[in-house]
Amino acid sequence: MTELKAAVAEIAEQFAVSQEKLQQGVDLFIELADRGLASDEDVHGLPMIPTYVNTIPTGSERGIYLAADLGGTNFRVCSVTLAGDHTFKLVQSKNPIPVDLMSGSGEELFSYLASKVASFVTEHHEAKETDEKSKFKLGFTFSFPVTQSSLNSGTLLRWTKGFDIPDLVGKDIVSVFQGQLDKQNVPVDVVALANDTVGTLLSRAYSSGAVAGGKQGDTLIGAIFGTGTNGAYPEDIDNIKKLPADVVKSLKAKGVTQMVVNTEWGSFDNKLQVLPNSKYDVAVDALTSNKGYHMFEKRVSGMFLGEILRQILIDFHQKGLILRQYPTFDKLPHRLRTPWELDSEVLSLMEIDDSSSLKATELTLKQNLRLPTTEEERLAIQDLTRAISKRAAYLAAIPLAGILVKTGAFEKGVHKEIDVGVDGSVVEFYPGFRAMMRDALALTQIGDKGERRLHINIAKDGSGVGAALCALDGA
Ligand code: ADP
Predict the structure, then answer these.
(1) Which GO cellular component term is one of those annotated (predicted)?
(2) How far apart are CA 470 and CA 78, in angstroms?
(3) Cβ of residue 303 lying under 6 Å from some atom of ligand 1
């Protein structure tokens, strides 16, 4: 075996997630989820944020609602017309977020967002505007950690995914947004704050007809694997011990028994009790503005997979294993030297390259990184890519299995089949990601029997429709 092959094999071994680790991960997930439900003071518990969303749609809901979504890369505005028969019509606009706004002032960002809502309403909803003075109700999907004390307010805890606008931390995001909308005279009321995972859960439930007795079974989890990763599920109110007693009392008086909890599982195991922590993970973490946080996300989601590979390539170059034509780091192609330049989309192309001599990979690396490679190097890079993606998909199984075990989903007779709604480019487009996740799920405590009863489906336009469904709750 060549030195390069041996080094690649060592990484593949180091990145492999054993059945034992998976099961330890599931146990730890349940423990940290319970601790997070009990108290916000426990810094090692998962955030487990109560969302004040109490109703899982059945598919019979009707009406026109707006939704806006600030995710990672884009700001989407849409209107959703619910037909009441599990179907909907959606009109959407997608606006890339200018990079300078991601670290500017709060006012700049939200003034920009409000202006995009204004142009959307003008372009698509003239008819409704003439319809008296009534305002559109909007559900706002804000995919960053917030604490909520009602459906239409939420305090930003910290930024993730490359955003860094300190003046908004600790502020109520809904009132900041509403303030800018009012300033620009946009006829829109922000009535609900939804996380994208909550939206994914609700939209999958609306579309699948699960609660109404559809074949797919109850929709129990909404999960995102995109720029970041996160999940939400309905929890019994009695188990959310940190909810204030008066809130529980008033909810119970209304007959409410469950509330959707936003787990913020991106920060699962920040203490690294179970998660792998290679020197490459350490290097990636050091480049982020939220060091030591979101450690699960940093091993699993789209923003980080490419950077992990870039770190390995740089290390291999330094050890003289690859790219020997470049004598020093400074001489490497600029893009390879630059953090975050290697997109996980590139990994998804290399993952399944079966062309002779990996010609497709050769082209991809040339186009994206201006990097010429030998066949031996490409074979190594493909194996490294597969080690990174497999580790990500295996780890992704941990919170899913954790929630299924914790809620006793498979033990309850009514849940013959379980439906998981997923969204995000990684789970949607990364070749084999879902299949690898399923392989790992079968190795967890749910076993292959549980895995077979599980349906993992893309929640199409999940966050938009889901946020609209939250607006319905707040109407
Ligand atoms: P967001 O999470 O920002 O709302 P997406 O779900 O589209 O949006 O996720 C974007 C992330 O997914 C980026 O990190 C990008 O690198 C990654 N990505 C986009 N396309 C692919 C693909 N085909 N394969 C793997 N990752 C992808």
Answers:
(1) cytosol
(2) 14
(3) yes
CATH number where 67 lies: 3.30.420.40
The count of structural domains within the chain is 1
Instruction: Report the length, in residues, of the chain.
Output: 475
What are the tokens at 156? Answer: 């930003």
C-alpha–C-alpha distance, residues 146 and 172, integer Å:
9
Any domain includes 355: no
Q: Give residue 274's pLDDT.
A: 98
Determine whether 402 is exposed, middle or buried from the number of CB atoms within 10 Å of its CB (0-12, 13-18, 19+).
Answer: buried
Each residue's pLDDT tens digit, 41-79: 998 899 999 999 988 888 888 888 999 999 778 999 999
Domain assignment of residue 353, yes or no = no
Tell me, yes or no, whether 113 lies in a domain.
yes
Ligand 1 pocket check for 300: Cβ under 6 Å: no
* Angle subtended at Cα 119 by Cα 115 and Cα 120, rounded to the nearest 5 degrees: 115
> Ligand 1: does its nearest atom lie under 6 Å from the Cβ of 71?
yes
CB 230 within 8 A of CB 223: yes
Domain hosting residue 167, numbered range = 62-198+464-473
Residues of the chain with pLDDT below 70 are 126-133, 209-217, 412-415, 475
Respond yes or no: is residue 203 known to be catalytic: no
Strands 229-236 and 258-262: antiparallel
Could you report the predicted ipTM of this complex, rounded to two decimals? Answer: 0.96
Element (H, E) at 60: none
3-state secondary structure of 457: strand
pLDDT computed for residue 214 by the predictor:
44
Residue 158 is among the residues annotated as catalytic for this protein: yes
Q: Is residue 304 part of a domain?
A: no
Global pTM reads 0.88
78: three-class secondary structure by DSSP: strand
Cβ partners under 8 Å of residue 132, min gap 6: none
The answer to whether the CB of 231 falls within 8 A of the CB of 224 is: yes
The alpha carbon of 449 and the centre of ligand 1 are apart by a number of angstroms equal to 31
Q: Six-digit token pair at 263?
A: 């787990």
Q: Check 69, 76, 143, 189 and give the catalytic one.
A: 143
Helix 302-318 with 344-351: angle, nearest 10 deg: 80
Coil vs helix vs strand at 36: helix
Beta bridge partners of 67: 78, 139
